[in-house]
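Handoff note, outgoing to incoming analyst
You'll be picking up this chain. Sequence as last confirmed:
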Amino acid sequence: MKGSGFKGAGIFALALGSVALAAVNYSLVVNGQVAARPAVVMNGEPYVPLSALKLLGVTGTVKGNTLTLALGSAGTPAQSAAGGANQITALEGCINQTLFNGIWRVKVVSLDPLNSSDTWSPDTPGWAVKLEVRNGAQKTTSLMNTGFGASSGGSQPALVLADGSTLAMNDSDFLTPWSRAVLQGGVNTFTLRFAYPRGTTEAQAQALKPTKFILQINGKLPAYAEVKYSIPDPSLRINLSCKK
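Most recent structure output, in case you need it:
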């Protein structure tokens, strides 16, 4: 009997080992937001964690051996988030988190307050956003040739405040890195300055801090660009309230 029990335990351990080898993890993006837990593929079929489904408005309840899923709380339909100027479909992440859209690996390195003497507008406080942009394509390219900036069919980088308003950017801070050619695997690091409206005090600026940084990108690239994005909307949204 003892020998039989030992043999059974060995078979069970081998079975667990084969299951572990069969499982493959994939990063999971839900509505452009990076989920906290990965998707798992077992026996060729993907499994998504319930926490990710909750981002889509799906709730789950367990009773006995049964898991029941419903769209919305208590069986009521989930409501979509209200639209607006800043409600774009985009990859979303935190400060110091790298987001990859098929061409660029983008990371907001830091967000720092600027004193009124540090901005281009006299006696006006603001914020400095430091960006690290790496070329993940297989050829040399630039932000200008890949849909960044208003003249490329996108929009200028935007720093959004808690009330939904945006701050003015110093266009000259963006012009040089926008047109700079970046080698394959190369990095483009630069800082953008944003200022409050004239007359804003330091105290008012601290009371109304930025919550999002948005890079809206035109994903419809011309043929001469010779590169393409791997997702339908390559725009990027950084939640400035979290940091990796």
